[in-house]
Fold:
Amino acid sequence: MIADLGEWLGLGPYCWEATPFFLAGVTTCLGVIGTAFSERVISQRWIRYRIDLADDLPDSPDVHLTPVTDDIIRALRGHPDHAEHQLRSGFRFWDRGLRRAYVWMDREQPLCIQWLLTGADRARVRTLDEWAGMYPPLVSHVGQVENLFAFSTARRRGVATQFEYALYDEARRAGLRELVTHIHEANAAARGWAERTGWHPFGTITRFQLDVRGLRAYAVYLHSSDDRGGLRLHHTRPV
Structure:
């Protein structure tokens, strides 16, 4: 299991550890506000997933991942898929200094790409503006994968699945024992794919944003855990 507890409250660039009781209270308060100002409160929810890299997971011995470089990013910015949401999010990560990413290339063409975050990235994650609260601190042996994207120009089947199995090996080589991620609850196809490739749901992230001038740049994130082995809350101050 990842660790002991997995409740967090995120606001702006900060995350605070929270008890389930406290998180329930905040959720109730935000629910009341949302009811009173339904046209002004925007909420979204993601499912949190975890995977134990010690599990008996498939591998992809024929897939060779390449660490992403500035030259690769420069080329991808000119790719036909450059405006796709996940790829644009990846570019934003790169521009904020989140530089651990892997791409699967075939004949100099990209097939699939994904970012891998570790605890060492915490300061850079805090620069993600209103999205920083989406990412609680990670303990040393836990990584987080983000912005998986399979390019539309790929001519192979099952590219994302083969890529992900290869990424598990990269994560192990980096000294990681667990990985976490999150998927929007409305994305049933991605959630089904994640569970088929070894991921297990363990909680939710709910994002509340007030559509009022001066407050749109701020969002509240409630990270809840259904799994008492969720992410360890190892700080008692905002991090």
User: Anything to note?
Assistant: Residues 1-5, 228-239 have pLDDT under 50 and may be disordered. The chain has six helices and ten strands.
